[in-house]
Amino acid sequence: MFDATWVVPLEVLNQLSASGRVRRSFTGAHHGSIILLPGYLRLLDYAGLKDIWEPAANLFSNNPSLPSGQSENARNAVGIVKGLPHTVHAHFLSRAGYSWSSLDSANLIIPAADITLKHGGEACGAWRMLCILDAFPDFNPDPSRMDWQAGEAALGVIQFMNAIRTQIGRPAAWYGVTPIMIFRSVSVSVEV
């Protein structure tokens, strides 16, 4: 049986490469650049864990060896995590730089739960990611936005959103990308 699902991504890669639109590094790239990187893949399946945060916090907070206050902190942290979007995050670690993205479970050919159960959080072996560059590391904030005021309440929400981003989203020193495809080469050997 032949599954054509795998043919379309390969054809997209071939067409983009043939037209010279694929870069091999973040160097000289701009927002919207299409980049193909070799590297290592970590998946954080928050969606797969959404129903176990509270039981895990209860186990953690009922530990008698914890210093006072930590069990309350664990319950508060679980309350925050339960309210966040439950998505699948991908960390791609390459020599060109580290990158972060979220993945839409509906667009995965292999379900995230299968990858998690097979590999845990780090998918073994070398992978390749074809992606669109969305965000640069936060080394130099844009000076044109430094005095952009919207009121104290809005500033508080923005600071909270930035803190969440750096704690469970894109780390400040990483690139933000939208994967077009994440794959690895498969060698086929047939023995008779």
Word description of this protein:
The chain has 192 residues and is an alpha/beta fold. The chain folds into two domains: 22-50 and 90-192, Beta Barrel (OB fold (Dihydrolipoamide Acetyltransferase, E2P)); 52-85, no CATH class. Helix content is 33%, strand content 27%. A five-stranded mixed beta barrel has the order 2-3-4-6-5. α3 (53-61) runs antiparallel to α4 (70-83). It is globular and about 60 Å long. 12% of the residues are buried.
Query: Would you state the CATH class of the largest domain?
Result: Mainly Beta
- What is the terminal-to-terminal distance? 19 Å
CATH topology of the largest domain: OB fold (Dihydrolipoamide Acetyltransferase, E2P)
Tell me the strand order in the biggest sheet.
2-3-4-6-5
- Radius of gyration from the CA trace? 20 Å
Number of strands: 6
Determine the number of helices (DSSP H or I, runs of at least 4 residues).
Answer: 6
Give the gist of this structure.
This protein has helices at 7-18, 46-49, 53-61, 70-83, 112-119, 152-168; strands at 22-23, 34-45, 88-94, 97-103, 122-135, 175-183. The protein has 192 residues and is an alpha/beta fold. It folds into 2 domains: 22-50 and 90-192, OB fold (Dihydrolipoamide Acetyltransferase, E2P); 52-85, no CATH class.
